[in-house]
Sequence to fold (426 residues):
Amino acid sequence: MFGSAPGRARVLVNIGVGYRRAPLATLEALTLRDIPGFYSIIRGIPGVSGAVLVQTCNRVDMFIDADEGAGGIIEKILWNWALETRFKLHELRRLADQRTGDQVLEYLVSLASGLESMLVGESQILGQLKSSLLEARGLAASSPTLSKLFEMSLAAGTRIRAQTGIGRGTVSLGSAALKLAEESIGPLDRTRVLLLGTGEIGMVLMKALKARGVTDVTVASRTRQRTESFCRAFGGKPADMHDILQQLGLFRLVVVATKATGYVLTKETIVPQMRLPQNQKLVILDLSIPRNVSPGVEQIEGIVIKTIDNLRDITDRAVSTRKALVKEAEPRIEEAVENISALIRREEAEPVVSELYHRADKIRKEELGKALSELNLRPDQQEVLERMSLSLIRKLLAQPAVNLREAAKKGDTKLLTVASQIFEGD
Fold:
């Protein structure tokens, strides 16, 4: 777990690049391939206590829990990010959004609520945020504060979706992607489809294909076992990746959504296998981050490539029709941010309150022991004296504890600092 000096004020930091400021190619270039390795790099930055990395087809986001006084953390992270992805640092500085404090919390709740998604209200981001947190925890990267922040933001986002209905009737990623394919090849109900990839996007696509009545779907992934498991759960006919890539000409729609870090389809591997009937098109939907289809494939006659960048027109129309729901969600997000922020700040008082009670109880026991050693009391009388000393401590400290928690809730870190200093020492 990341370490931090006790008693220091904390600050939440978010650094990210999203679809609003960068095209798919740029997001692909900024995607981190070695996530455990990058977490190790962040672990080495002084003042960082935790991190959660969120990478989706629409964004690369880093959420950081850091010491408030630690200087240059954002610049150090940007520098390492640029170094790891071989991206120009000055360009990354220009593209990256930077948020601190409650801005981070507001952004995360908005993410969970679906307001930051390309397809406003889509629910896939909830699963992506959960997976990102689990991955960070599994790598001992997330701090307790970040874990609570994510959990409370996810709960708030789920609640806001239910209250506003912003997720109902939303055009899903799968539905929007298939609309793009239909623009080139028409209705898909009798189309032979190949799905490469059995992850979350693959599941979304299978649901969208079923909704359109598409039944002829072949599925392939890295392992035969995973492919067969996917087909049992979601449908489709399993195939071996290597074998099926030799038969691309049999399909009219190929959806690529793997987690490969390189190109799965290239001009060199496709051309020898392609035997398209005259005037027939093959549409390839590349929904992977990073891209799994080489740009050179677009040069092959009869092949049409669509990527997430091509979804922007559909998403723009979706946003315009859901403006009323977005306006309804915004004040609820503000309320959730205020509540979560107050809870997190209040918890900052708990170490001070706990130490206050611990030291008081230590003194109580010492003085009680001295008194009992000088008195010849029966056991029942000793018990009365014990209860009285406990009650005295609790009553004396009850109001100071309330005041400290309220001070933390209001963000009064000075009182917490003074209180911790007063009770320092042996």
Notes: Strands lie at 10-18, 48-55, 59-67, 97-100, 193-196, 217-220, 237-238, 253-256, 282-286, 303-307.
